[in-house]
Specification:
By secondary structure, the chain is α+β, with helices and mostly antiparallel strands. It is about 20% helix and about 35% strand. It contains three helices and nine strands. Strands 5-4-3-7-6 form a five-stranded antiparallel beta sheet. The longest helix has 8 residues, at about 1-10. It starts with a helix and ends with a helix.
């Protein structure tokens, strides 16, 4: 319940289509770093942010986000299956290094 309330209160900004948008943390599916640029994905859009991946991770701390790879942080509430497939059909690869953290979060360890 606490994580849900924190997500409701947390907002991040990102740019898309020439404008700056304010997005609720709960709407973010995952955050990814590609070629030294950071993007976050919602069900309907992709936004670029000036923050680095670790800064986004810090900003989303306490909101049920989990690092699953060196360049990717996912919204744990949006994971649909362990294949791992997101609600919108997006797929994110969980690296072996972060697999124990995911298992622990799922209560499998």
């Amino acid at each position: 319940i606490v994580a849900r309330l924190r997500m409701f209160d947390r907002k991040v900004t990102g740019s898309a289509d020439g404008g700056t948008h304010v997005v609720n943390a709960e709407d973010i599916l995952y955050v990814e770093s590609v070629d030294k640029r950071t993007f976050f994905y919602t069900e309907g859009a992709v936004f670029e942010t000036a923050l680095r991946l670790y800064e986004m991770e810090e900003r989303l701390e306490g909101c049920d986000f989990l690092r699953v790879a060196k360049g990717c942080v996912v919204n744990f509430r949006r994971i649909a299956s362990l294949r791992p497939e997101m609600n919108n059909g997006e797929q994110v690869v969980i690296s072996r290094q972060y697999a124990p953290d995911v298992r622990r979060k799922l209560g499998m360890l």
